[in-house]
């Protein structure tokens, strides 16, 4: 008679084996099956995006009718199934769900479901094109993929500075909007502060659509000053990201010698040769003189 515990253990082992094989195929590119899976996935992504682009052409939309929509639903079901399998088979679900690729995979299927309620949101499925970045992994373009990770790391490291900067920009925009609203008023098209905020954004970013134009000398002075401020604003985030990226490139090309000494408080390393305090926690390093001299000679 067959032992039920043996049967359940065998089923559990088989399930683990299946999950392991699927994880290698879906997340890895080291096997032929994994490469074929990713290439087929990218092909489906490109075809689905092409369908959305063609659907936006009125002549094609009228001739094909609901065919484009049914095709999009079909692709969405496939990508939803694929996303569910990714979550099921990965050994670290939380890491995948909150990773860059996990978020992109989720964004690839959300627009179609939103389109059931808001049909005009259907073109947002072009977000799927971001998934084509997996081609760097498929064809083992390690250098290009490393550069992509480097850029993402720089954006993460500068996110706080950029966030603070954006908050300051929003404050400046609101101030400009309120000033121009008081100066120009509804008689010149600035019927409310939200409309004035729109004008301030267009002016400070130097876009200048021309649908709202100050008519008074004082309003034109404010607009000109806003344009000058806009040039300064555009340069700041570019400088922040460029500086951080340049620092990382220099660290990789010409790594600075560091002390072979860990901080006695936080146990972290990587301090400069002349450092007296920990760069991480600020505690005194108390490096023996012979250790410092030996490090400087090397």
Poorly predicted regions are: none
The 3D shape can be described as flat
Distance between the termini: 73 Å
In DSSP terms, counting alpha (H) and pi (I) runs of 4 or more, how many helices? Answer: 13
CATH topology of the largest domain: Four Helix Bundle (Hemerythrin (Met), subunit A)
Q: How large a portion of the residues is in β-strands, by DSSP E? A: under 5%
Helix content: 55-70%
- Helix/strand/pairing class, anyone? mainly alpha
**Overall average pLDDT:** 78
Description:
This protein has 298 residues and is mainly alpha-helical. It folds into three domains: 4-140, Four Helix Bundle (Hemerythrin (Met), subunit A) (Up-down Bundle), CATH 1.20.120; 159-253, Helix Hairpins (Orthogonal Bundle); 257-298, no CATH class. Helix content is 68%, strand content 0%. The chain has 13 helices and no strands. It is flat, with a radius of gyration of 28 Å. The N and C termini lie far apart (73 Å). The mean pLDDT is 78.
Keywords:
Helix Hairpins, single chain, 3 domains, 13 helices, 298 residues, flat, Four Helix Bundle (Hemerythrin (Met), subunit A)
Q: Summary?
A:
The protein is an all-alpha fold and 298 residues long. Helices cover 68% and strands 0% of the residues.
Q: Secondary-structure blueprint of this entry?
A:
Elements (H helix, E strand, L loop, with lengths): L3 H24 L4 H24 L2 H7 L2 H23 L3 H5 L2 H8 L2 H8 L17 H4 L3 H16 L1 H26 L8 H12 L12 H37 L35 H9 L1
């Amino acid at each position: 008679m067959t032992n039920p515990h043996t049967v359940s253990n065998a089923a559990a082992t088989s399930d683990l084996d299946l999950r392991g094989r699927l994880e290698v195929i879906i997340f890895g590119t080291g096997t032929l099956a994994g490469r074929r899976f990713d290439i087929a996935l990218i092909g489906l992504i490109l075809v689905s995006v092409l369908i959305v682009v063609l659907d936006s052409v009125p002549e094609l939309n009228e001739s094909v009718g609901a065919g484009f929509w049914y095709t999009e639903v079909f692709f969405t079901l496939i990508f939803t199934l694929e996303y569910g399998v990714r979550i099921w088979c990965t050994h670290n679900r939380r890491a995948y769900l909150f990773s860059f690729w996990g978020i992109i995979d989720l964004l690839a299927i959300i627009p179609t479901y939103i389109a059931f309620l808001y049909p005009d949101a259907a073109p947002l499925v072009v977000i799927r094109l971001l998934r084509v970045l997996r081609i760097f992994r498929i064809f083992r373009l390690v250098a290009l993929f490393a550069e992509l990770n480097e850029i993402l790391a720089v954006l993460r490291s500068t996110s706080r500075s950029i966030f603070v900067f954006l908050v300051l920009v929003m404050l400046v925009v609101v101030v400009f909007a309120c000033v121009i609203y008081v100066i120009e008023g509804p008689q010149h098209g600035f019927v409310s502060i939200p409309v004035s905020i729109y004008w301030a954004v267009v002016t400070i970013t130097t876009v200048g659509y021309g649908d709202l134009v100050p008519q008074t000398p004082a309003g034109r002075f404010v607009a000109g000053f806003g344009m000058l401020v806009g040039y300064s604003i555009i340069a700041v985030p570019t400088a922040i990201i460029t500086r951080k990226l340049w620092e990382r490139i220099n660290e990789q090309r010409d790594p600075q010698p560091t002390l072979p000494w860990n901080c006695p408080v936080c146990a972290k390393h990587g301090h400069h040769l002349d450092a007296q305090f920990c760069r991480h926690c600020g505690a005194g390093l108390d490096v023996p003189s012979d250790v410092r001299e030996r490090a400087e000679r090397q």
